[in-house]
Amino acid sequence: MRRVWALLGKDLLQNYRDRLAFLFTFILPVVFTLFFGFLFGGSNTSSLPLAVANLDPEGVAALRIIEMLESSEVVAPRAFEAEEAERAVADNRVAAALLIPEGFSAGMDAGDAPAVTVVRQMESSGGQTAEQAVRQVVSVVAGGRLAALVALRAVIPGAAPASHPTEWATSLETAVGIMENPVLTLQVENSGTRIGETPRGFDMSSPGMLVNWVLFGLMGAAITLVLDRKSGVLQRLLTTRVRPWEVVAGKAGAMVALTLIQQVVLIGLGQFAFGVDYLRSPGALVLTMLTISILSASIGLLLASILHSEAAVISATVILAMVLAALGGAWFPLEITGPTFSAIGHISPAAWVLDALRGIIMRGWGIWQVLPRLGAAWGYAAVFFGVAVWRFRFD
Which residue, among 88, 109, 112, 91, has the nearest Cα to 99 in the 3D structure? Predict the structure, then answer.
């Protein structure tokens, strides 16, 4: 094992002396993380955007609904005109739209059953989540007002809120307070994101650029292996006590170590400078980091095994990294593309590791929740590594 560590250390030292490798490993990832983070909003909130068209602006019940939605952790309400709200849903700018009709509050106070309207796209899981949040808030407000009206009329038969404002206010406050603090609650956890529920800001750019530039960062290590073959270093190693498997292990280990160091730097920057919550699940994060490094090292070893010139490695790395990253959702969320392109995007192993990373960041996924996604990436890594070892030559 000492010979493996010696080869690993040699490759790391050689790579970090290369200014171009340093540029691709650390400088450009930070620049592109900033660019895409601000391009996609700069905000890390995972609340779903909800368009609200309130045609009952003076109504107490309508204002109460909006107030409760504003304090929700699920949706982020934004004021819209009615027609614009529906267009925003159609254009995928919001997860759903809430339309509160004129006279809604008066009808509720009279004991009627006025209805609000929720507009969403049928295939949108984000829209479904937003609708559930609206239903919960409307149920609390409507249930509280109905209970308050029943209680008021039980004490004063036939009473109306307008004729007994003091008693009505007391009854309403008590009923709504009870409705807002139920004895039984239901916690729902999403297993993924689709249209209307997308990562934004640095929650989008940080993991995306991490995966993108980890693939680019392998360029230096792959070139080192090609140059060692061309210069005869690998052949001379075979004349020593170094065994062939130790050479492969040392080269692959250097690639894994290089990408792990790169990830530690970029994740630390994302956590403490950009507010990306990578540390919600440390165990799942470490497992995902190892998966990314092993996958990337397998790709790098494969490229260095089948290509025999520095120029070819550079060209192949750039093209392959760009295709895998873009197709896998590193440059833009696959959730905004629709289910068909999202399914196509998961042909790329980058999509699976990005699903795991964003699941950790946005929903606090643990080890068992990221395992299915990482399992797909391990399958790719096994194939790449197997082909790389099969095609590996010392001359």
Answer: 88
Domain that includes residue 66, residue range: 48-180
Tell me which DSSP letter residue 274 carries.
Answer: S
The answer to whether residues 382 and 249 belong to one domain is yes
Residues 31 and 52 in one domain: no
Burial class (CB in 10 A: 0-12, 13-18, 19+), 371: middle
Is residue 98 classed as helix, strand or coil in its secondary structure?
strand
Q: What is the mean pLDDT of the chain?
A: 81
- Does residue 190 belong to any structural domain of this protein? no
Residue 185 counted as domain residue:
no
Among candidate residues 385, 361, 359, 363, the one with its CA nearest the CA of residue 372 = 359
Instruction: Please check whether residues 158 and 264 belong to one and the same domain.
Output: no
Residues 175 and 215 in one domain: no
* Dihedral sign from CA coordinates of 255, 257, 260, 265: negative
Look at 21 and 281; give whichever has higher pLDDT.
Answer: 281
Q: Tell me the whole-structure pTM to 2 decimals.
A: 0.63
**What is the rounded distance in angstroms from the CA atom of residue 257 to the CA atom of residue 102?**
63
User: What are the φ/ψ torsions at residue 95 (nearest 5 degrees)?
Assistant: -75, -35
Instruction: Please tell me the number of Cα atoms within 13 Å of 293 on its side-chain side.
Output: 19
Banded model confidence at residue 44, pLDDT cuts 50, 70, 90: very low
End-to-end C-alpha distance for the chain, whole angstroms: 23
Give the per-residue pLDDT at 292. 94
Tell me, what CATH number does 167's domain have?
3.40.1710
List the one residue out of 307, 319, 317 whose CA is nearest residue 227: 307
Last residue of a domain, one of 180, 212, 240: 180
Q: Which residues pair with 118 in a beta bridge?
A: 98
Verify that 247 and 176 share a domain, yes or no.
no
- Enumerate residues 6+ apart whose C-beta is below 8 A from 77: 50, 51, 52, 66, 69, 70, 98
